[in-house]
Design brief:
Blueprint (H helix, E strand, L loop, with lengths): L7 E7 L3 E8 L2 E9 L4 H16 L6 E7 L11 E2 L2 H12 L5 E5 L4 E6 L5 E6 L9 H10 L6 H5 L13 H13 L4 H23 L5 E4 L6 H11 L3 E2 L7 H12 L1
Helix pairs in contact: 2-8, 3-5, 3-6, 6-7
């Protein structure tokens, strides 16, 4: 049994592309784990949790609570508190940046713009449609077309001198358009920069509907792409805060909220 002074909790964010877990001691992150989901939610959820526990030198019996969010959260084999992704990302960003009042989450399934309270609770939210063109999934699709490592997309786009204009808002047609631009001899840097501009425009349109509040942060897989971050900043004309590891923001929020349930 944990003492009142020491409370261990776990948070999980089981997404369609990546599964993430954190172990916290009170409000301090002890360890984290991130791995591809690979279509097996149950295996991914239990693997990331076990990995994070091992890194922290703990076992399941040490945990006072487990919070989970994401598409595959229900597949966790242990008792847990299920929490919405929006709530978890809001609280997770608040953990890193208490002054933030608007969160832009660019995830694999959708993008969200969330206004949050000073406590990190959701005040208002708007979600993109479920088309890959409005999420970080489109970055993975075009990376494959261009035969570029996903982690290199951001730095490459910053070298662009003539961003390609994407004329479609559909992921399928965007992929076809990218293939055509390659065939025409367009530089990879300009194709990627054009993609970032198109995704940033969609996010900016969402932001205008919800009314951004200072300060702003970006999280989710899209936050790992410096080119996209810069493109969004240009569209919304605001600086975006980015945590050291935006992948685990939702998991941290899940751990913190579960403790309070």
């Amino acid at each position: 049994m944990n003492s009142k002074e020491t409370l261990y909790s776990a948070g999980l964010d089981i997404g369609s592309a990546l599964s993430k877990a954190v172990i916290m001691k009170n409000r301090t992150v002890l360890s984290s784990s991130v791995r591809p989901t690979e279509g097996n939610f149950s295996h991914a959820a239990n693997t990331v949790l076990n990995d994070a526990l091992e890194k922290a030198g703990l076992s399941h019996s040490d945990l006072a609570s487990i919070g989970a969010c994401g598409l595959g959260a229900s597949f966790l084999a242990y008792p847990f508190t299920k929490i919405t992704e929006i709530s978890c990302h809001s609280r997770g960003v608040n953990y890193f940046f208490p002054s933030v009042r608007t969160v832009i989450e660019v995830g694999n399934q959708a993008s969200r713009v969330i206004n949050v309270t000073k406590e990190g609770k959701v005040a208002d939210c708007i979600v993109s449609d479920r088309c890959a063109a409005g999420s970080s999934r489109i970055l993975q699709i075009i990376a494959k077309v261009l035969k570029v490592d996903l982690k290199d997309m951001g730095p490459l786009s910053l070298k662009s001198t003539n961003p390609v204009r994407f004329t479609t808002g559909c992921a399928v047609f965007a992929e076809t358009e990218a293939i055509s631009r390659v065939a025409e001899g367009m530089r990879k840097e300009d194709i990627i920069a054009g993609l970032h501009q198109a995704l940033a425009a969609r996010i900016s349109a969402m932001a205008q509907r919800i009314k951004l509040k200072e300060e702003c942060a970006i999280t989710g897989g899209g936050a790992k792409d410096i080119g996209l971050v810069r493109a969004v900043e240009g569209k919304i004309e605001k600086k975006l805060l980015v945590s050291d590891d935006p992948f685990i923001t939702g998991a941290i929020g899940a751990a913190l909220i579960a403790v309070e349930k």
